[in-house]
Amino acid sequence: MLSALIFDVDGTLAETEDLHRRAFNRAFAALGLTWRWDAALYADLLTVMGGKERLAHYIETRRPDEAAALHALAPEIHARKTAAYSDLVTEGGLPLRPGIGRLIGEARAAGIRLAVATTTSRPNVERLLAANFPPGAEPFDVIAAGDEADRKKPAPDVFLLALAGLGIPASEAVAFEDSAAGISSARAAGLPVLATRSRYTDSHRLDGAFSAVSDLGEPGQPHRHIAGLEWPGGVVDLAGLIRWHEALDDQGTAFQAMGTSR
Length: 262
Ligand SMILES: [Mg+2]
What we know:
This protein has nine helices and seven strands. The protein has helices spanning 17-30, 39-45, 51-62, 67-92, 100-110, 122-132, 157-166, 180-188, 238-251, and strands at residues 4-7, 113-118, 142-145, 173-177, 193-196, 211-213, 225-228. Strands 3-2-1-4-5-6-7 form a seven-stranded mixed β-sheet, sandwiched between helices. It is an alpha/beta fold. The protein is globular and about 60 Å long. Residues 8, 10-12, 178-179, 182 line the site of magnesium ion (MG).
């Protein structure tokens, strides 16, 4: 029985990654640091999950001569980056990706519960939700975020935390991801994964997802199918997810992930 949907945030709910990059650059500028991260560099850095971890990786690999001083400054950089991210969302908004709002609405109407499993910090999640849902709407029953999990993706910890919060086994949920590390994390937690390709994960292989698509799609705005399960009309909807999940239950076996590629 399908009882919950669990979503990654960055790149899955919204194309947040460029705002994170610009927020880091604002923090660097505010602290008098001379470098800036361009889109190509940030795409490389995104292989490291979690903003704090990403910054530490950058310092280790690109600023080794200043590493001690920069590691000491890192908490301040990250705090300013989180504030700058909130400002950027307030200034420019941050729309949900195609089909996200629709699928969330379908799930809530059907009594399917919703959770978030993300390596990003909780304030960033709350800012995104505040920009897209009316006050008090609280679309997600459970939010597992940032440092609440011991290990970042691709470890399964944050998805296991979301499942624990929902109080259900992995066999009752489907995960939504946009990155290779995220798919690995969800799969390691025992979850089937539907993958949408995002701007910054354009080069990622989406192996391990039972279905890979460009986005969830909207009626009249079909998505592009990439691999695995196909969706009538180019739209991922709750009815289709429930049908797929029931077929999985009927087989009485663990799901067989499709080998997918670009
Ligand atoms: Mg992501």
